[in-house]
Design goal:
The protein is an alpha+beta fold. It has a single domain, classed as Glutaredoxin (3-Layer(aba) Sandwich). The chain contains four helices and four strands, in the order H-E-H-E-H-E-E-H. It has helices at about 5-10, 25-45, 55-60, 85-90, and strands at about 15-20, 45-50, 70, 75-80. It has a four-stranded mixed β-sheet, covered by helices on one side. A hairpin with a 2-residue loop joins strand 3 (about 70) and strand 4 (about 75-80). The chain is globular, with a radius of gyration of 13 Å. About 25% of the residues are buried.
Length: about 90
């Protein structure tokens, strides 16, 4: 199957990866982490946290927007995470 067709296939939440990009000492990052952790626990999605101060590429891309939430490597939101919007993104 071609890569273009694969991208359009619907993934189950358990196949999705949420990445929270933030930095230590950021209160918005702490708030975002609580939402991401809760929604991923509810939906079965996997999640990871990346420190922008440890990755030059992430810093270059997102330094003005942290926290940034990526879903399967694509930017979903930044600054504040809406739990319902994240849930919907993980469902389809």
């Amino acid at each position: 199957m071609s890569p273009l067709l694969r991208r359009k296939e619907k993934k189950s939440p358990g196949e999705r990866l949420v990445t929270l990009v933030g930095k230590p000492g950021c209160h918005l990052c702490d708030d975002a982490e609580a939402v991401v952790e809760r929604v991923c626990a509810e939906t079965g999605a996997r999640w990871e946290k990346k420190d922008i101060t440890q990755d030059e590429e992430l810093y270059r891309l997102h330094w003005e927007q942290i926290p940034v939430v990526l879903v399967d490597g694509e930017q979903h939101t930044f600054w504040r995470v809406d739990p319902e919007r994240l849930r919907q993104a993980l469902q389809g």
